Amino acid sequence: MNETSVNQKHKRPVSKLAKISLVFSLAGFACSLPGVYLFYLELDADAAAAIFLTLALLFIGLGFVFGIAAFLMILIKKQAGFLVLVTSFFIFVTSGVLMPAMGLIRPIKKCEYNCKHIRYDIMRYAEDHNGKPPRLQNWCDALTSEGHINKRDLICPGVRRKSNNGLCNYAINPDCKPDSPNDVVFLFETKGGWNQYGGPELISFDNHVRKGANVMFNDGHVEFIKPKDATKLKWKAEANEMKQPASR
User: Fold this and answer.
1) Packing angle, helices 82-128 and 46-77, rounded to 10
2) If DSSP codes are grouped into helix, strand and coil, which group holds residue 111?
3) Among 204, 222, 95, which Cα is nearest to 158's?
4) Between these two residues, 81 and 221, which has the higher pLDDT value?
5) Lateral strand order in the sheet of 168-172
6) Among 47, 112, 172, 189, which has the minimal tally of Cβ within 10 Å of its Cβ?
7) 114 shares a domain with 99
8) Is-above-0.70 flag for pTM?
9) How far is CA 224 from the centre of its chain?
10) Residue 91 counted as domain residue
11) Would 247 be classed as within a structural domain?
């Protein structure tokens, strides 16, 4: 076997790993473009944006793994290739585009979890008090003092805790009754306070970098509402809309 054949044999594994890494990186970059586009333009396609960004993270992760493998092969065999450099470039570029978007989505989803957690703990409190939920005037005190919820779960993750001083970033709508329609606002984001309850005058769209607020409705589902859609929220049921009590 001549020297040329030996060199080609040694280069083939590295080139193959680098090519696989490059393919995955390109796929991740391709998925990130529509994901970031949908997310930053604030179109009503959050679910689609999350799917694209998740796929992008998956492909980028695979590209990173194969890229590391190719790099290790280079160290072992003391070889270098243009494809590995290109692969590294795409990994860094895609990560730079993707990570900020994912960093904005994460606090929104954690905030949504907080809303559901609060609702669940209000239900638990009612079970322990003969079906009576905490009074609006001291609902934060009631939930935290009896260990139904931790104070950190009352803080929106989009708000810096030090500047928030441990205050609650959620308020209850007093006009939402158990027999109100499902689309009446029950719980919503607000600025830092304690035992807050009220209507649209309290809602805050500034807790997240991406302007908007998590709003929980009477049927328990949560939506991230953008400022332009605030006027569509229903805060009180009409007399002819009262129905059977909703499970809360």
Assistant:
1) 140
2) helix
3) 204
4) 221
5) 168-172, 185-193, 213-217, 222-225
6) 47
7) no
8) no
9) 10
10) yes
11) no
Same domain for 8 and 21, yes or no, is: yes
* Radius of gyration for the chain, computed over Cα atoms and rounded to the nearest angstrom: 26
Distance between CA 24 and CA 19 in Å, rounded? 9
Please name the amino acid found at residue 223.
Answer: E
Three-state SS string across 129-185, please? CCCCCCCHHHHHHHHHHCCCCCHHHHCCCCCCHHHHCCCEEEEECCCCCCCCCCCEE
Instruction: With respect to residue 42, please indicate whether it lies within any of the assigned structural domains.
Output: yes
> Tokens for 188?
């919503």
Dump pLDDT digits (tens) for 226-242.
999 999 999 987 766 55
What's the rounded Cα separation, in Å, for the pair 58 and 62?
A: 6
Shared domain for 96 and 158, answered yes or no, is no
pLDDT at 53: 73
Residue 229 shares a structural domain with residue 144: yes
Residue 198 domain-assigned (yes or no): yes
